[in-house]
Amino acid sequence: MNYVKNLRFFFSACLFTMAILFSGVAQAHEEEKKPYVPRKVDIYEGFPDWYKSVFADNVGLKEGSGLFKDHYKPLFMNMYMYPGRHYEPPTRMDHSLFIEKERRDLCIRCHEEINTGAIEDWKTSAHYNPRKTPIIARKTKIIEDSIGKEISVVDCFDCHVDTEKKQIRLPTAGDCSECHARQVTEFASEKNHGRPNHIQTLESNVLVPWYQESYRRGLLAGNAGCDMCHGATDKCDPCHTRHSFSAAEARRPQACMSCHMGPDHPDAESYGESKHGIIYELEEEHYNFDKPLAHVMVGEEYRTPTCQFCHMYQGGGTFTHNFVSKGIWRMGTVPPSNIEYESSLKDYPYGIKIIPPKIDIYSDENLDKRDKWIEMCSNCHSPRFAAGWLTQMDDYMFQANKLTDQAQKVIDDLIADDMLYPSPADRDIYPGGDWLADILPAELLGEGVWNAFKTTGGKIPVIGPILGVYAMFYQGDGNPTHIETSYAKMWFWYKLQGYKGYAHVQQDVMWWWGQSPMLQELGNVQSEARSMRRAAAIEKALAESGNPVSFPAGKGKASAKELDYGAGR
Amino acid sequence: MNYVKNLRFFFSACLFTMAILFSGVAQAHEEEKKPYVPRKVDIYEGFPDWYKSVFADNVGLKEGSGLFKDHYKPLFMNMYMYPGRHYEPPTRMDHSLFIEKERRDLCIRCHEEINTGAIEDWKTSAHYNPRKTPIIARKTKIIEDSIGKEISVVDCFDCHVDTEKKQIRLPTAGDCSECHARQVTEFASEKNHGRPNHIQTLESNVLVPWYQESYRRGLLAGNAGCDMCHGATDKCDPCHTRHSFSAAEARRPQACMSCHMGPDHPDAESYGESKHGIIYELEEEHYNFDKPLAHVMVGEEYRTPTCQFCHMYQGGGTFTHNFVSKGIWRMGTVPPSNIEYESSLKDYPYGIKIIPPKIDIYSDENLDKRDKWIEMCSNCHSPRFAAGWLTQMDDYMFQANKLTDQAQKVIDDLIADDMLYPSPADRDIYPGGDWLADILPAELLGEGVWNAFKTTGGKIPVIGPILGVYAMFYQGDGNPTHIETSYAKMWFWYKLQGYKGYAHVQQDVMWWWGQSPMLQELGNVQSEARSMRRAAAIEKALAESGNPVSFPAGKGKASAKELDYGAGR
Amino acid sequence: MNYVKNLRFFFSACLFTMAILFSGVAQAHEEEKKPYVPRKVDIYEGFPDWYKSVFADNVGLKEGSGLFKDHYKPLFMNMYMYPGRHYEPPTRMDHSLFIEKERRDLCIRCHEEINTGAIEDWKTSAHYNPRKTPIIARKTKIIEDSIGKEISVVDCFDCHVDTEKKQIRLPTAGDCSECHARQVTEFASEKNHGRPNHIQTLESNVLVPWYQESYRRGLLAGNAGCDMCHGATDKCDPCHTRHSFSAAEARRPQACMSCHMGPDHPDAESYGESKHGIIYELEEEHYNFDKPLAHVMVGEEYRTPTCQFCHMYQGGGTFTHNFVSKGIWRMGTVPPSNIEYESSLKDYPYGIKIIPPKIDIYSDENLDKRDKWIEMCSNCHSPRFAAGWLTQMDDYMFQANKLTDQAQKVIDDLIADDMLYPSPADRDIYPGGDWLADILPAELLGEGVWNAFKTTGGKIPVIGPILGVYAMFYQGDGNPTHIETSYAKMWFWYKLQGYKGYAHVQQDVMWWWGQSPMLQELGNVQSEARSMRRAAAIEKALAESGNPVSFPAGKGKASAKELDYGAGR
């Protein structure tokens, strides 16, 4: 019997060895067919030159980013947040000798003393131990094949040294792509789907004139709150935090959270407090984050979906490192073309070409995206359930847009009747209003809007989506007034809270931070408008009785009607 | 010696076998004595017929629920939220053949492909493996005895097929009761303790006319935020989430959270941030959620109490599936009878019979409940400590009600002096005000209120608890104004925040989301009232001087005094 | 070979024994040199006698705490929150016989039945098992050496009995210090660093006259939210929760949370949602909380810092039980001396000696503290990064103070022009305004402020930091008005949110709960001021036309200018 057993073992061993050999051959063949050429991915590839020159060229802290770069100087910390453009190598300590001699050992020797935490963290990483687990070893093998050399360790030198300039660098996504080309290429592909996307998020930061206005008014330090998310897109460590750079960590919902939370995109709150999120919280330790998303067994390894699982899904069972390809309503800030408006929203975007046009929720492209969502949700729910929910979310958004349309009409009418108080002529300009039209030509701003800026020096009333959001970011003397702020909160906070509440199926966010405060703000807009009209009627009665109200000197009250807003408004 | 040992073993074995035999006999006897008859529990048992006909009869999506059912059509998703009334079987795919042939195998064969997550989740459940753990096996045995058949698996067919109608169904609590009769019976017993309770929570959703008003104004999609909690009471899966339906999961505080959070009942927030909740968070993995509550060793297996442990406690060491039997202040929305009021709260509930009368906090029934609370808290604290805290919470609530009384008086006086601006006559009606009195007779609404609705078509000013809450849910033209919204927030948000802060012993919620913003809103109510009086005095002076203020056409200003509000206000 | 092995073992054993002996000798020597005398630490040591008499002398519930103690009676629960001053032994049950006979066994025998949870929790503690782990055994040894007796158990009797008075007591920090002298001494040392500190936090509770005003107005129960943190400083169990009193628990960030959260110090929120906090949440189970902070391996045992790790750090690698020694901006409530002001902030603190003077952020002492912060951050980050962030945080705070200065100027001007509506003369007094100057002499209040209180009986307008915060805590008739509340929120909520957002590097808190709502409140202050000016101008026009506006009787409108505010304003 022993003989038979041994014989069986012998055959098994042979088969196993042969299997390995053949698989090796197969792999070699595949490699010959599709040689994987390592390259440094340019995440801005495809953008015009001027774009790269104002967003991606390194200028240290000497000037800003974007088209309005000359109107502000970046905060010191921006060198760390957006290193591609703003990093300056350390000056207190000259590292050039170590760099020239390639003294990799010295990095650790010093920094282990000074920055123990960073070094210790790196020691837990796949960079320190590229064969830490079978999955990681496999990934390392793929990278080795693609870059054509063996990797025993990825150390400080590999990432933090610009070997050309012989300088310390802070790595950008492009630097990471030298090994992680596929991930960075997929990430960069987000830009092909239009904004918002991670690649272009810096635009929302510095292509809004209130950013520069903050600088002019000495308030830029507060804007670091914006920079930390919006200026951190050319790096991988917002999600794969340094210095462990773990893929497993980045697969967890919390990885998205410190940016994706708050008034305008309460993703963390709405997901976290939904049944999906609560079950994740309860069963977190049973979720398998070591596995690539495509290998996850739904219902077993993930009882509920994560941010990554839904948003990186590309349809047909595939996942890539692109989060935006299924976005229909986007951030929810752009009005849909599918409903009628009563207010000046009718004319949105007022001829302005730098803001997005109304979204057609039912375009072919968007219907395709919807199919992918239904496919995703059908992992657990019936397609009827999934489609029903999506349709209801559309309805919510249409309704929310109608509510803001109502509020906008109230303010439109105030302006038309010259009763917005104080009148635009009596208050500070729109942020950057005195220079905006010098930088953005009439072709981009639209003739009417461009003329209005030029004629009034920026003293124009602005409400509505995108441009009217300034009320959340700027306070000049009398601009915005409280009624405009109330409108902006309705548009930018509560509509978006309700949206994300719906998208992530969290009832409290849907109603109590969504529709309810929208209604309340609408009520406030109505109440304030009535008070303004009441005071104006009183002033009119006084004027007619020969006792006009006289205002303090220097607070002359020019009529809004005297201003030429142009066709854009 | 071996002989003795063996002998000992022999006797032990005999005794053991006999014990089993006798216990078997004993059990059989008990069964004979108390035959457990399985039955489908009607959670609406005891309600009058009209109640069942408007809340529980299945109508699909053809009409609404409740007395006002003809004034709206339900949202599509309500078929899933409140299936007992609104579910419609799938039409895209005819399942009848499978149902007739009882092809249980086919359910899984198809849905494993389409809805993998749901099937995989079910595979982790006690339904898939009814002898998964000793505790579950014991429960299964009890069920088997009660239904008189053996259970090897509970599959899709068992829950999702209406064998009478030969249709796919979405199971309701009644369906679950076929096996889980005790739990559903206890759950249904909540209705014996008055509202609020889980059984009748749909009433708060659809018996408030702002729900139907939302429908009329095309804003119903936002109300799904209400439906998700208020319309999900005839199902078990809000807590025992599908398809694992775990009792252990439902024993965890997070199970309550997606409903029990937010402005009006910040249970999750106040518990979660209290020391009880924080210690639970820190030591979660040491809490034993597999055990039934009555078996939990306090201090050892639960270091601090959970939602379930306190609220399912019935006194005397017993726990049942009833959460409301110890409620004294209820949701905190109804004013107590134990204090004096200055405002129209004196007359609450204004003769209206469909809203609850003032609560006597010190009724015999409520004093009994208090004793049970003290008994519960004394698991860890001294009875003096527990009683002291409860008394202080009462004091807080009395004070909070006095503060809102102050605010209500300010607005009462404005109305009495015809200075609320805009006047009720000049604005949109109270939600549903034009049809309310057609449905609710004078006997229910009270003569005065009924007349007021009839006479004015709903153009009546309404502030105060319950009915005045409309200001959080509706915004017509000029109704409510900001001062009324401010009052409603004081009543419905901040008073209730402070209440739950106190109840769950969380200081930040008590003060900063409770008493502090109440004071701030009171200040706002005062400020706005003064502004209205100031403007009215100015208008009066102008009128007296022969220069009356003229308002835009169509905005005629009828006097509130001209309206007959009836005795109710 | 066996011989050699044995020999080797023999030598090893000898060396080991000798090492133990010598270490024993060394220890004995050290003990002889520095005998550790156990003592009861007086946390108020160093304070003047009057301070102790009004804060620390036990008065039960008969009177209040602090200088204004005669103006209120404490809430019942304060006996548990601040037992040193307010505890009263139980009266329902006479424990004196058990105490006299030292029947330690009886405590447990009864309370195990009544308060099972507390006893079971204690059984998990080091008090029950003083040699539970090697680390705990070592600590016990140190304590035994210091108090000169062996400890087998620390039971109810040891902590809860006042052996002198033969009464049940609730232990204070001083009682804990009988064994834990080092920790309590370090804790008490916080007071050497100025306020805020844990020792003196009761002052912020009862030395603010709105506390007593709440009592006078029958609203004290709400203030329990204040007491729970501010009145819980002479106890150790807010962090080391009873009855396990675990050091490991107190080392976890959540231990600080139930107090350190909310509008004015969103520490929990800002840390919790920062990358530091998120990584802690994700990797919590890998943090080693059993180790004393000084032994923690950064990057390995703590991947990110905790509250305790940063705030207990004293520089030079040492940690003590003192959280405040590195505080520069403190709670962020006191304006810095490093910027220019336009408003009455110029004169802050208006001669008042009981409120802190402006802070010089760049004093030598504060520069030293900064160095320690940089040292701490450099555990992981570069010193340039750390210093850069701290500088930017200073800039944010300077800017935030400038923004509030702008708002204060708007209200200052209203007051100066007698246009704040209602005028201070027409409304309720400043909280406690009628008795404040009787208790606080002119030397403390400053001549001008003292005179203003005396002359007007407290009818003075107060805005600005510290004193103006009353608007968050009190609402009299017309005092504060909404514009003042808006200012106070700007100062006390949003500035501080932004501050903690910056300090803990959380972008959402920085912007959306910090600078953005500050700007919005500033806009509201401007809008309301303009409305007040508009109405005043209308009234002036009417008066000039011979048709003065007449107000309801009893609402006489005295001019703010007629009041003598004194130099302080």
Task: Please characterize this protein's 3D structure.
Chain A is an all-alpha fold. Helices cover 49% and strands 2% of the residues of chain A. Chain A has 26 helices and four strands. A two-stranded antiparallel sheet of chain A has the order 1-2. Chain A has a two-stranded antiparallel ribbon with strand order 3-4. The radius of gyration of chain A is 29 Å and the shape is globular. The relative contact order of chain A is 0.08. Chains in contact: A-B, A-C, B-C. The interface between A and C is large, with 69 and 67 residues.
Low-confidence stretches of chain A: 6-33, 553-569
Task: Tell me roughly what share of residues is in helical segments of chain A.
Answer: 40-55%
Q: What is the rounded Rg of chain A?
A: 29 Å
Strand order of the largest sheet of chain A: 1-2
What is the succession of H and E elements of chain A? HHHHHHHHHEEHHHHHHHHHHEEHHHHHHH
The count of DSSP E runs of length 2 or more, i.e. the number of strands of chain A, is 4
Our count of helices of chain A gives 26
Q: Largest protein interface?
A: A-B, 67 and 69 residues
Report the β-strand fraction of chain A as a percent range.
Answer: under 5%
Q: Overall pLDDT of chain A, averaged?
A: 90
Main β-sheet of chain A, in a few words? 2 strands, antiparallel
